[in-house]
Amino acid sequence: MVAQAKFSAKSMFEELDKGPQYVLTGMVKRHATDSTRLLFSEVGDCQHWTEIDEKLISRFENHGLATCGDHRHPIVTLHLVHPNNPEAKVYARAQAQTAAFSTRALDAIPSGDTGPETDCYYDRKSHMWRKISDNTPCPRR
Questions:
Q1: pLDDT tens digits for 72-124?
Q2: CA–CA separation, 75 and 65 (whole Å)
Q3: Cα three-residue angle 21-25-31, rounded to 5 degrees
Q4: Spatial distance between the Cα atoms of 65 and 76, rounded to a whole number of angstroms
Q5: CB 49 within 8 A of CB 40
Q6: Of the four listed, 79, 101, 129, 134, which is most buried by Cβ atoms within 10 Å?
Q7: Distance between CA atoms of residues 106 and 99, nearest Å
């Protein structure tokens, strides 16, 4: 396990001054033939994987495991490096805006639905709360 640096307000604001944070949260698995790449997918989507080169990742956070059919994958947040070329900056800004929209959409979950008590995620495809551990529907509060 990687040791976390001690928090300081100064370092937080220095990081914020760098601009938007480019992060992806989802499942990962090993690339079959290239140890410098990983495969990334949304939690619960075992069919669609995107290759990501390790050079694009500055750090990660581990959030446990998600069930995918009869097996499991780690759930992580990948902190991506800041893009250097203009084209990559456009894609990164678009991805950040899409992620912000997704967060706002999750805030629009039907009134009175405060989510489950257990470790669950909101599956946007099925519009249901699902357990991270086995992908089954979560109990309501």
A1: 999 998 888 877 777 777 776 666 666 555 555 444 445 444 444 557 776 76
A2: 5
A3: 110
A4: 9
A5: yes
A6: 129
A7: 11
Strands 71-80 and 120-123, how do they pair? Answer: unpaired
Q: In what order do the strands lie in the sheet with 37-41?
A: 50-53, 37-41, 23-30, 71-80, 57-68
Determine the Cα–Cα distance for residues 15 and 1; give it in Å rounded to an integer: 23
Measured CA distances, 18 to 58, 64, 74, 91, 140 (Å): 14, 29, 29, 17, 40
Tokens of 82: 């800041």
Neighbours of 43 (CB within 10 A): 21
Residue with token string 């989802």 = 26
Residue 62 has pLDDT above 50, yes or no: yes
Residues in the chain, overall count = 141
CA distance 104 to 66: 23
- Residue in this structure with the two tokens 């990081």, named with its chain if needed: 15
Structure tokens at 111: 């009134």
pTM: predicted TM-score of the whole model, two decimal places: 0.57
Segment 9-49, tens digit of pLDDT: 888 888 777 766 778 888 999 999 999 999 999 888 888 89
